[in-house]
């Protein structure tokens, strides 16, 4: 059975987080298709991975037999994350927008997983693995919107996940999530509700499609 690697990075609980809520819809649909499958779950807000250190970074470019004890210890943590990433048949990542980009905890996970010559480079080890990113945001940064130029979540993740890691990327974007809480955005509440509904529908459909493809 297929293995799903599910990563959440929102600092908010599920009741207040759009990315967590939509990711949960995806996961439930996935588990309905794979009741005996495996889900590896990482909550980077409650259990963050270490930000990459000089030892962990330099160890990635050195022969393991030449590692210092500090490099070996630091690289062991990276290796666990890399192997977890490589064994997944599909990835689900909750990536809310914080100050125009991804949470630092998600960046730390990516810094640990990206290893040139293995997960990244000419022949990335997880090439072709489908990844669904729930890219929630409080406003709208869609093409044509006033803040289009501030969109650094999808642009960055496309470069990293597709160009570096060779993954098959699909975005689901629940937007305007601050509309119900910000009086200045009251007129945008119907658009928020439509975006939320569409995101949940897309998440369920995407999970079922991937599950069927992997089971074929």
Structural account:
Keywords: Flavoprotein, FMN, NAD, Oxidoreductase. There is one protein chain. 41% of the residues lie in helices and 12% in strands. It is built from 6 helices and 5 strands. It has a single domain, classed as Rossmann fold (3-Layer(aba) Sandwich). It has helices spanning 18-33, 54-59, 69-87, 104-113, 154-164, 189-215, and strands at 3-8, 38-43, 90-94, 130-134, 168-172. The mean pLDDT is 94. A 5-stranded parallel beta sheet has the order 2-1-3-4-5, sandwiched between helices. By secondary structure, it is α/β, with parallel strands linked by helices.
Instruction: Output the structural class.
Output: alpha/beta
- Helix-strand pattern, N to C? EHEHHEHEHEH
* CATH level 4 superfamily: Flavodoxin domain
Gyration radius over CA: 18 Å
Q: Helix segment count?
A: 6
Amino-to-carboxy terminus distance: 11 Å
CATH architectural category: 3-Layer(aba) Sandwich
CATH topology: Rossmann fold
- What is the residue-averaged pLDDT? 94
Share of helix, binned: 40-55%
Strand residues, percent = 5-15%
Within the largest sheet, what's the order of strands? Answer: 2-1-3-4-5
Multimeric state:
single chain
Number of domains: 1
Largest sheet: 5 strands, parallel
Q: Gist?
A:
The protein is of the alpha/beta class and 216 residues long.
List the helices and strands and how they pair.
Layout (H helix, E strand, L loop, with lengths): L2 E6 L9 H16 L4 E6 L10 H6 L9 H19 L2 E5 L9 H10 L16 E5 L19 H11 L3 E5 L16 H27 L1
